[in-house]
Specification:
This is Aquaporin Z. Helices cover 72% and strands 0% of the residues. With 251 residues, the chain is mainly α.
Length: 251
């Protein structure tokens, strides 16, 4: 009986390319759905805004499922700087490689929203200007919060839900106690997180996604961006260190 050849580990270039493409997919699919669904809900009255929230939540969840199916075997399918740092805190990823992943994730997200802008240039009259005036899918509080929530609510939401997201990722992808359904579990969790928190702050739990939208979202979006760089990371680090402490038999 012939043994199967052992696959060589992916190169650094392959891993970084996978992270960039996966983050592109996440942002293009999720933010694109938010922008286009919002347009139809508000302008064409095709469906209520709540259905737009459901469409956006589903899009973010689906992009994680398909992205993980495509790239988990190459890069681990982080697609999110908070996830990368949380995995490092849990001992699942090398700290020395975190900056490389974060750089390409931010680039992938920024390219995605740039393509959304290019599409918008050829959209209905006034669509792009309206989308940018509304923040271009940016996260925020006060005027940028769909439900009018303020900064303390946003901080609590981002820390708590990013921690929940990391606990699901760490548990479902554990090398011994994980499940083959991890991509589905992670995608459903991200969809649930969006259903809970879109009305609060548009849902970040991902600094790369927040940067990508804020680049085209105007002054208020950029001024509020720091919250979505800091507090998802805080939540991810809390979850990573806590998971390692509680389930410390092996990383």
């Amino acid at each position: 009986m012939t043994e199967r050849p052992v696959a060589s580990p992916p190169s650094t270039a392959s891993r970084l390319t996978a992270e960039a493409i996966g983050t592109f997919l996440l942002v293009f699919g999720g933010v694109g759905t938010a922008l286009f669904a919002s347009h139809f809900a508000n302008e064409a009255a095709v469906f209520a805004p709540g259905v737009g929230y459901l469409a956006t939540a589903s899009a973010f969840g689906l992009t994680v499922v398909v992205g993980a199916a495509a790239f988990a075997g190459v890069s681990g399918a982080h697609f999110n700087p908070a996830v990368t740092l949380g995995l490092a805190a849990a001992g699942r990823f090398a700290w020395a490689d975190t900056w490389k992943y974060i750089v390409v994730q931010v680039i992938g997200g920024a390219v995605a929203t740039t393509f959304l802008v290019l599409i918008g240039l050829f959209g209905p009259a006034g669509w792009l200007e309206e989308a940018q005036n509304a923040g271009f899918g940016s996260n925020g509080w006060g005027p940028l919060s769909p439900g009018g929530f303020q900064l303390p609510a946003v901080i609590i939401t981002e820390v708590l839900l990013t921690a929940v997201f990391l606990f699901v990722i760490l548990g479902s992808t554990h090398p011994e106690r994980g499940t083959t359904l991890a991509p589905v579990a992670i995608g459903l969790t991200l969809a649930l997180i969006h259903l809970v928190s879109i009305p609060v702050d548009g849902t970040s739990v991902n600094p790369a996604r927040s940067i990508a939208s804020a680049l085209y979202g105007g002054g208020t979006a950029l001024a509020q961006l720091w919250v979505f760089l800091v507090f998802p990371v805080v939540g991810a680090l809390i979850a990573g260190y806590a998971y390692r402490a509680v389930f410390a038999d092996r990383p």
